[in-house]
Amino acid sequence: MTEVATKERKKTLSEIKREAIIDAAKSVFLELGVERAHMNRIAEVAQVSKRTVYKHFESKESLLMQLLGQLWTVGMTKLEVSYDPSASLKLQLESLIKEEVEALSSEEYIGLARIAMEHFLFQPGIIQSELENVDPKKTALYRWMKAATDDGRLDISDLDYTFSQLQSLLKGSCFWPQMAKVTPILDEEQKMKLIQESAKLFLARYVVGVA
């Protein structure tokens, strides 16, 4: 019997520097906002040269957009949940929705999104498109929806539309009002209610048979 050892790929120096730049930018943006943040300060906090920062990002705006996309993508793709044909659809869906709600309603994500929105106040299309510019097929929730549909337990004719529909439902309660400072960030009880009620509403429309 041959034992195969698997090792995690070692990050390159360039990748390490890029991650340091992103981490530094996050703290600088949250502390100073976009207007007062400068590439010099980001380079200083990241402990890299200004030239290195510009090698990876052409502007502080592109760096901010990268941050926003990364925060949401990590939150929605890190969950290793595979569709289980023998398990409750309701429990599986609630678990997936919980990850999305946690990602969307984090103070860090909302704080950065608010900063970006204020910076692009007269160009709302830019921030809107960037916040939506994530391939849904990469998310655990989308893959789960497709698998459940292929298995005949969900009746979904347009996965992209249905995924977007559920996203809008969640964002309307745990992201957009908070970013606009209309309502505070949801507490744990409010999050749980949103998760459970959203799952019920979704399944009432798309489930085949028993959830």
Automatic annotation (TrEMBL):
<feature type="domain" description="HTH tetR-type">
    <location>
        <begin position="15"/>
        <end position="75"/>
    </location>
</feature>
<feature type="DNA-binding region" description="H-T-H motif">
    <location>
        <begin position="38"/>
        <end position="57"/>
    </location>
</feature>
<protein>
    <submittedName>
        <fullName>Transcriptional regulator</fullName>
    </submittedName>
</protein>
<dbReference type="GO" id="GO:0000976">
    <property type="term" value="F:transcription cis-regulatory region binding"/>
</dbReference>
<dbReference type="InterPro" id="IPR039536">
    <property type="entry name" value="TetR_C_Proteobacteria"/>
</dbReference>
<dbReference type="GO" id="GO:0003700">
    <property type="term" value="F:DNA-binding transcription factor activity"/>
</dbReference>
<dbReference type="InterPro" id="IPR050109">
    <property type="entry name" value="HTH-type_TetR-like_transc_reg"/>
</dbReference>
<dbReference type="Pfam" id="PF00440">
    <property type="entry name" value="TetR_N"/>
</dbReference>
<keyword id="KW-0238">DNA-binding</keyword>
<keyword id="KW-0805">Transcription regulation</keyword>
<keyword id="KW-0804">Transcription</keyword>
<dbReference type="InterPro" id="IPR009057">
    <property type="entry name" value="Homeodomain-like_sf"/>
</dbReference>
<dbReference type="InterPro" id="IPR001647">
    <property type="entry name" value="HTH_TetR"/>
</dbReference>
<dbReference type="Pfam" id="PF14246">
    <property type="entry name" value="TetR_C_7"/>
</dbReference>
